[in-house]
C-alpha cells in the first residue's frame, strides 16, 4: 500500500527530504502550525525530522512545504537517497546555466537589449529562480523579509533598469549557492542516515520451536535471535548459545572485534564475524542502544549552540538593516546627483550582497558535522552547547575506579621467598583461593595455569583463607596474620602496602612461601592520556576517589595526575567539583555515570565512561565515551576546540566579505556580479570550512 495516500496517520514523527536552509525550515514549521489540526509541532532542522501531534496527513504536510519541494516520509519508512546530480535544484541550475551561456553568447553578437538575448536571459532566470521568485513575491505581499525576498527585489529591480545579463548571472549564482548549502547539510546529516541503516529491519527468530523471519518491530523481549556468521545483529540481547567475535565499531568505535560467549551482551547494528550465535532479546527495537544513540544525536543536532543563538538574534536585526541601507543608498545619492539609474543599481547590489545565507549557515553546518563525526568515532555529544563548552574547559576531574583504572583487581606483584618460584607461589595461593568468591581471590586464580587439589577450605574474617593441600594447611591472608604465626615480613612486601596495594602472605605452619600484591590496575593508556591533555593545554588534572589516600597517591604518581582528593563520598565529589570550578573556571568530570552522577551533573561538562548499554551513562552525562575508551577524551576536546574556532572563522568570513563588498559603494564600484560573488563566496567558504571537521580523527 502506498503510505502517501493515507489520510489518517498513526505515526506522528516524520523524516524530511529537501530541507536545506534554516529560514526554509522556520517557514515550513510556521505553515504547519497554521494547519487547523496541528496541535504541537517540533521541527529538528539538523536531523531533518518533524514531530507533530494532531490528525494531519502527509499530503497536507507536503503542501505546507511545497514552496521548497519538501518531501515527508513516516519515520519507519526509508527515505530514498537521491544523488546530488539528480536533485531538482541541481538539474534546474544546470538547465539555467545552459540558457545563461547561450544568452551571453547572443548578447555579445546582437546586444544585451536584443529580444533574443532578453528571451534567453529571462528563460535562464525563470528556470533557475522560479521557486525563489514565487516564495519572494509571496513574502513581499506579507512584508516578510528573508533571503529570497531580498533576492527577488534585487532581480526585479535589475530587470526594470535593463540589467538582464547581470540579473540572470545573479540568479544562477544564487541557485549554485542554495544547491551547495543543501549538499553540505545532507553531507552533515549522513552520520544519522548511516546509523539508521546499521541495524537490519528483519531478523530470523526462534519462537515456540519454530524459525520465523519477522520485522524487528514485531520481535518481543525473550525471543531467541538466530545470527549467522557475517550477519548483522538486529536486536540488543544476551548470548544464549554459541561463541563468536563481534565487530562493535558502529556502536562503540572500537577498531578490534570483541569475543562473545554465552552470557555476554550484544548490540543491534553490530556485525557477527565468525561463529553462529543464538541471542536472547532483552530490549524492544525502539529501546536498543543504537536507537537511543540515534535519538540522542538527533536531539543534539536540534539543540542550538550559544553561537547559533547569537547568529539567529543577529540575523533578526541584520536583514531589516540591510533593506534600510539599500533603500538609503538608492534614495539619497540618487536625489542628490539625479543619477537614479546608477544609485538604484547600487541599492539593488546592496540587497544582494546583504543576503544572510553564509551567516545563517555558518554555525549549524559546523555543529551538525562535528556531532556526526563524533558519533562515528564512538563519542556521543548530547548538544551543540556541550560541544562548545568542551572546547572551553580548563581542568579535568577523573573518578579513579573504572576510569583511570580498570575497575577490577589484578595480581600485580609476586615476591617469592628463597627456594620458591613465582609460579609455585601463585599456584599455591590460587589453589587455596579457588573456593573463595572474593574479588581478590578471583584475581589470583585467574593468573594460575593449574591448581593443586584442595580440601577443608575455610575463611576467617579479617585474616584470610586456608585450605589443606597434600596434607599441609596453606594460608593466604594479611601480613599481620603471617606475623602472628611468627614470620618476618620483608621490606619489599611492606612497600606494597605503602603503594596502596593489597598485600597477602602465602604461608603454612613452617614456611613463608611468598607475598602477593593485588591492586586495581591502572589502564595502560591512562598516563598517555594525561600527557596528551597537557599537550593540548589542559594542565590541571584531578583525581576524585573514595579510596584510601595512600592508594590514590600511588596511582596518581604512576599516572601523572596533578591533584588528588581521596576518601570522598558521592556528596564530597560534588563539593570538590564546585571547589575546582571556583579555582580553575570551567571543569569537566569524567566518571562511570552512576555513582558519580552528582559530580557529573554539577560539572560544566559531564563525561561518562562506557556508554554502550549503560542507560545511566547515556542519560546522566553531557558526553558519553561509548567504548569505555579514555583515549577519545583528547580527541573530543580537540574536536570541540576546532569546532569553536571554525564557527568563529565562519562568522568572521561571512561578515568581512560583505563589509568589503559594501565598501565598494563609496567609489561606486559595487556591481550585482561582485555582490553575488561576495555572497556565494562567503557561503562556499563557511561550508567548506565547516566540512573540515569531518577529517578530525581520534
TrEMBL record:
User: Do the record's keywords include Transmembrane?
Assistant: yes
Which part of the chain is the HMA domain? 10-73
Q: Which CDD domains match?
A: HMA, P-type_ATPase_Cd-like
Q: Which segments cross the bilayer? A: 91-110, 116-133, 317-336, 348-372, 646-666, 672-694
| EC number annotated for this UniProt entry | 7.2.2.21
On the tree of life, the source organism's domain of life is Bacteria
Localization per record: Cell membrane; Membrane
Instruction: Tell me how this protein sits in the membrane.
Output: Multi-pass membrane protein
Q: Indicate the principal place this protein occupies in or around the cell.
A: membrane
- Protein's UniProt name: Cd(2+)-exporting ATPase
Amino acid at each position: 500500500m502506498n503510505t502517501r495516500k493515507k489520510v489518517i496517520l498513526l505515526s506522528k514523527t516524520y523524516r524530511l527530504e529537501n530541507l536545506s536552509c534554516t529560514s526554509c525550515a522556520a517557514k515550513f514549521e510556521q505553515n504547519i502550525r497554521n494547519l487547523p489540526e496541528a496541535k504541537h509541532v517540533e521541527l529538528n532542522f539538523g536531523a531533518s525530522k518533524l514531530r507533530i501531534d494532531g490528525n494531519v496527513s502527509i499530503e497536507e504536510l507536503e503542501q505546507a512545504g511545497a514552496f521548497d519541494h519538501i518531501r515527508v516520509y513516516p519515520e519507519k519508512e526509508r527515505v530514498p537517497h537521491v544523488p546530488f546530480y539528480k536533485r531538482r535544484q541541481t538539474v534546474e541550475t544546470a538547465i539555467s546555466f545552459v540558457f545563461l551561456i547561450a544568452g551571453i553568447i547572443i548578447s555579445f553578437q546582437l546586444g544585451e537589449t536584443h529580444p533574443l538575448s532578453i528571451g534567453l536571459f529571462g528563460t535562464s532566470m525563470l528556470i533557475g529562480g522560479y521557486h525563489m521568485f514565487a516564495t519572494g513575491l509571496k513574502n513581499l505581499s506579507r512584508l516578510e523579509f528573508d533571503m529570497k525576498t531580498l533576492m527577488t527585489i534585487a532581480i526585479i529591480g535589475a530587470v526594470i533598469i535593463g540589467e538582464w545579463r547581470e540579473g540572470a548571472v545573479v540568479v544562477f549564482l544564487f541557485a549554485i549557492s542554495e544547491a551547495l548549502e543543501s549538499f553540505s547539510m545532507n553531507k552533515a546529516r549522513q552520520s544519522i542516515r548511516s546509523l539508521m541503516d546499521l541495524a537490519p529491519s528483519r531478523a530470523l527468530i526462534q519462537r515456540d520451536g519454530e524459525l520465523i523471519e519477522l520485522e524487528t518491530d514485531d520481535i518481543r523481549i525473550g525471543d531467541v535471535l538466530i545470527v549467522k556468521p557475517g550477519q548483522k545483529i538486529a536486536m540488543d540481547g544476551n548470548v544464549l548459545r554459541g561463541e563468536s567475535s563481534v565487530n562493535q565499531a558502529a556502536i562503540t568505535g572500537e577498531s578490534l572485534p570483541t569475543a562473545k560467549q554465552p552470557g555476554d551482551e550484544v548490540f543491534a547494528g553490530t556485525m557477527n564475524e565468525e561463529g553462529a550465535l543464538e541471542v536472547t532479546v532483552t530490549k524492544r527495537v525502539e529501546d536498543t542502544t543504537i536507537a537511543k544513540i540515534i535519538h540522542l544525536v538527533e536531539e543534539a543536532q536540534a539543540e542550538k549552540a550559544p553561537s547559533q543563538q547569537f547568529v539567529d538574534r543577529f540575523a533578526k536585526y541584520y536583514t531589516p538593516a540591510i533593506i534600510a541601507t539599500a533603500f538609503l543608498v538608492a534614495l539619497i545619492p540618487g536625489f542628490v546627483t539625479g543619477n537614479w539609474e546608477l544609485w538604484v543599481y547600487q541599492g539593488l547590489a546592496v540587497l544582494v550582497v546583504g543576503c544572510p545565507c553564509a551567516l545563517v549557515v555558518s554555525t549549524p553546518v559546523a555543529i551538525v558535522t562535528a556531532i556526526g563525526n563524533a558519533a562515528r568515532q564512538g563519542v556521543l555529544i548530547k548538544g551543540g552547547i556541550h560541544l562548545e563548552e568542551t572546547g572551553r574547559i580548563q581542568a579535568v576531574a577523573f573518578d579513579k575506579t573504572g576510569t583511570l583504572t580498570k575497575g577490577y583487581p589484578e595480581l600485580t606483584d609476586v615476591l617469592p621467598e628463597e627456594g620458591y618460584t613465582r609460579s609455585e607461589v601463585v599456584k599455591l595461593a590460587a589453589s587455596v583461593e579457588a573456593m573463595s568468591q572474593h574479588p581478590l581471590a578471583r584475581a589470583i586464580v585467574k593468573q594460575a595455569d593449574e591448581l593443586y587439589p584442595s580440601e577443608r577450605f575455610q575463611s576467617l574474617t579479617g585474616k584470610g583463607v586456608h585450605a589443606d593441600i597434600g596434607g599441609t594447611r596453606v594460608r593466604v591472608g594479611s601480613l599481620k596474620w603471617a606475623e602472628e604465626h611468627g614470620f618476618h615480613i620483608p621490606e619489599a612486601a611492606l612497600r606494597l602496602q605503602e603503594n596502596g596495594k593489597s598485600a597477602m602472605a602465602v604461608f603454612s605452619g613452617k614456611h613463608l612461601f611468598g607475598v602477593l600484591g593485588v591492586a586495581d590496575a591502572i589502564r595502560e593508556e591512562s598516563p598517555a592520556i594525561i600527557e596528551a591533555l597537557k599537550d593540548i593545554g589542559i594542565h590541571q588534572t584531578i583525581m576524585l576517589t573514595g579510596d584510601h589516600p595512600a592508594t590514590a597517591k600511588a596511582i596518581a604518581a604512576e599516572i601523572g595526575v596533578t591533584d588528588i582528593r581521596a576518601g570522598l563520598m558521592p556528596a564530597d565529589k560534588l563539593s570538590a567539583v564546585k571547589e575546582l570550578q571556583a579555582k580553575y573556571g570551567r571543569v569537566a568530570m569524567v566518571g562511570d555515570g552512576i555513582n558519580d552522577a552528582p559530580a557529573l551533573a554539577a560539572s560544566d561538562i559531564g563525561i561518562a565512561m562506557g556508554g554502550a548499554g549503560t542507560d545511566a551513562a547515556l542519560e546522566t552525562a553531557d558526553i558519553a565515551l561509548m567504548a569505555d575508551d579514555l583515549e577519545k577524551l583528547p580527541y573530543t576536546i580537540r574536536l570541540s576546540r576546532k569546532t569553536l574556532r571554525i564557527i568563529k572563522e565562519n562568522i568572521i568570513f561571512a561578515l568581512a566579505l560583505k563589509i568589503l563588498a559594501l565598501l565598494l559603494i563609496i567609489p561606486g564600484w559595487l556591481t550585482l556580479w561582485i555582490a553575488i560573488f561576495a555572497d556565494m563566496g562567503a557561503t562556499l567558504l563557511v561550508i567548506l570550512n565547516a566540512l573540515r571537521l569531518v577529517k578530525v580523527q581520534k
